[in-house]
User: Which sequence fits this backbone?
């Protein structure tokens, strides 16, 4: 998928997003504050809206999106049926579909939820279920909007294990997040602000240059505070 001088709806920025390539087998972190344009870009790539300038060349690739609020995408009553549906929709069923469902459920550690009613689940459990459903589509481009916002540490790790697996299988993964500490899970970091791209960095470059963009990972002040407390106890 390629973007050519994209300008997002509802933003006045004339810069927008220059020529960009979304490569296969890569994980991209869209990093920016709330209202920076991350969700708008994902929805545009998913075909929910049109750019006010520029063009998108999808190269015949299909996309699937997980919205910030996963409740908006639930269509079935049970977890199993919610996960089974995208495989049926992709033209597979029976043992093949069941194998795919169980594989994703195992990676995300939600096998114990398969026979549960979705209405009985916590928000975090629903987020994991809808992540699984998104991964089970036949889309080549996976778009995830704040997918770890309601997950605990183990849930976050499980999510990114699945992301890595999808990338290994040739899919392109774009994840919108306000959490810079998640950058080690990605190949590229796109810094978004006010509807435009401020930087496109490798994860290694981001680790060295994040301060240049006014970004402070949460782990930095936490580590500094812990060091201060440790010094006071000596």
Assistant:
């Amino acid at each position: 998928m390629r973007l050519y001088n994209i300008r997002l709806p509802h933003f006045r920025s004339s810069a927008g997003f220059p020529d960009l390539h979304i490569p296969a087998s890569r994980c991209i972190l869209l990093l920016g504050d709330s209202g920076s344009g991350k969700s708008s870009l994902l929805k545009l790539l998913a075909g929910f809206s049109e750019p006010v300038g520029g063009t998108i060349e999808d190269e015949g690739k299909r996309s699937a999106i997980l919205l910030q609020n996963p409740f908006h995408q639930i269509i079935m009553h049970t977890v199993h049926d919610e996960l089974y549906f995208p495989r049926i929709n992709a033209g597979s069923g029976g043992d093949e579909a069941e194998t795919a469902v169980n594989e994703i459920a195992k990676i995300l550690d939600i096998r114990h939820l398969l026979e549960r009613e979705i209405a009985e689940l916590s928000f975090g459990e629903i987020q994991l279920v809808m992540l699984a459903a998104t991964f089970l589509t036949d889309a080549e481009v996976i778009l995830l909007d704040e997918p770890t916002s309601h997950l605990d540490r183990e849930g976050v790790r499980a999510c990114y294990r699945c992301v890595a697996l999808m990338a290994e299988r040739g899919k392109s993964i774009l994840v919108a997040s306000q959490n810079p500490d998640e950058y080690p899970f990605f190949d590229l970091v796109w810094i978004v602000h006010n509807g435009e791209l401020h930087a496109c960095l490798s994860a290694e470059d981001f680790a060295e240059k994040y301060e240049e963009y006014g970004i402070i990972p949460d782990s930095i002040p936490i580590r500094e505070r812990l060091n201060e407390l440790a010094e006071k106890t000596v």
Summary: The mean pLDDT is 90. The radius of gyration is 19 Å.
